[in-house]
Amino acid sequence: MCIVIHPILRALYGLFTGATSSSSAARVTIKEDCKSLLLSNEQLTTLMKDMDGAIRNGLGKDTNPSSIVKCYVTYVQDLPNGTERGKFLALDLGGTNFRVLLIELGENNYFHMDSEIFKVPAHIQTGKGSELFDHIAKCLAEFIKKHNLDNKKALPLGFTFSFPLRQVGLTKGYLNSWTKGFNCSGVVDEDVVRLLKEAIKRRKDLNLRLTAVLNDATGTLMSCAHKTRFSKNCFVGLIIGTGCNACYVEKVENAELFDGDKTKPHVIVNTEWGAFGDDGKLDAVRTKYDREIDEDSLNPGRQRFEKMISGMYMGEIVRLAIVDLANQNKLFEGRLSEQMKTKGAFGTSFVSDIEGDKANYKETLKVLSEMGINDPSLVDCANVRYICECVSRRSAHLVSAGLAALLNKMDEKSVTIGVDGSVYRFHPYFHKLMVEKTKQLTKSDIKFDLMLSEDGSGRGAALVAAVAVRDELPSMTNGFSAK
């Protein structure tokens, strides 16, 4: 009688018996090959200095046009202070899915939120811009009808648009470039608020008042400020998800392109640091895998910092490293499945699953089985995990370098950092890696906390809308407490 043993069980048997097909020397070789994915503190300190210079150039009136990091002024100058009242809609667009939210604010810190997720079909992501905004308006109408909202009075709407946006006012912003797989025609260099308003008008069944446009990092900062009961030291918003970006509170006099209300001392600046390194500043630490991903992307040569960090690319970096090492007979005895050879097949969620293994490589074996890799050895599993660890650690350390540059520049002694995004949420060690490295790179007298922002970008959009309505009564504003 022939007994068929499942590949996972066979590998686990090898784990307990020591019956593996690869030698321990293979792991040493893998570590040598992965050295390019490790960053020293010296390298990170150099990147911090370059990031600081890029941010200062982005803030300068004369240096901004040539700056890679654009530091767009958001025109958001006030935090929630607890006096906001009413119902507010939010539209949160930043990837293949977008959300519509309804937030109600009332007395005694009353807060209620409803939300719904809508999908942006693939053909719309790369189709005409008018089709994208018509699709969004259609979903807005469906949401409003489902929740029986009164359409007689114009509902305030905050619009989170999580792509590089050059703002010239709280309700006016021009798309600089598409990222994260989007490439809709007729939108770059256009005012996205105007395009959304036109789509809403075309439907004739929507009555909305767009009160603010913002990016997801700004929404995250606002959400955390509200979550901490109107904390006045929430000075940074950070996104580590499909993309990667940060915003922070800057003194008005340093934001030379700001032409808003200069009686208020501070304004949130959207760094758009995902483009850091597009001028070659990252070349010394980029690997052949980074170069391949960049060259094969929809926007080659752009968003290079983001491509080394974010969830859209992390799994693909791991896959390229696995394929490369297998082709050198250093993994799986040189055998590769068609799935593993397929671009984009190794999702970033697999990286979290593998690193979340508690024992026996159970999750690693499961992921490899899904990828068509059967009967991997124990050393293969260990090496795949090591590749994942190198890629995610590098991602966390790059974010830490950027974050430390912001903290050192602001020089506030106590800072709350609002963080959102799937990588930060679901990777088992990302938070720990970031805290440890940021502490090493930040001035010793600066204390900071990382706070997970629940529904940050969407909730934040509604809160910015609420603050904008509140600010129609000037006596109710309170600004930031940064010095």
Task: Report what the structure shows.
By secondary structure, this protein is an alpha/beta fold. It is 41% helix and 18% strand. It has 17 helices and 13 strands. It has helices at residues 7-17, 25-33, 41-59, 122-125, 129-146, 192-203, 216-227, 288-295, 304-307, 311-327, 338-341, 348-355, 362-370, 378-410, 422-426, 430-441, 456-470; strands at 72-73, 86-93, 97-106, 110-119, 155-161, 165-169, 172-175, 208-214, 234-240, 244-251, 266-270, 414-420, 447-452. The strands form 3 sheets. Strands 1-11-10-9-12-13 form a 6-stranded mixed sheet, with helices on both faces. A 5-stranded mixed sheet has the order 4-3-2-5-8. Strand 2 (86-93) and strand 3 form a beta hairpin. Helix 1 (7-17) runs antiparallel to helix 13 and helix 10 (311-327) runs antiparallel to helix 14 (378-410). The relative contact order is 0.18. The model is unreliable at 1-25 (pLDDT under 50).
Averaged pLDDT = 89
Within the largest sheet, what's the order of strands? 1-11-10-9-12-13
**Oligomeric description of these chains:** single chain
Number of strands: 13
* Secondary structure tally, helices: 17
How does the helix and strand content classify structurally?
alpha/beta
- The fraction of residues in strands falls at 15-25%
Query: Largest sheet, described in full?
Result: 6 strands, mixed
Choose one word for the global shape. Answer: globular
- Any low-confidence stretches, pLDDT <50, length ≥5? 1-25
Keywords: ATP-binding, Glycolysis, Kinase, Nucleotide-binding, Signal, Transferase
GO molecular function: ATP binding; D-glucose binding; fructokinase activity; glucokinase activity
Enzyme class: transferase
Protein name: Phosphotransferase
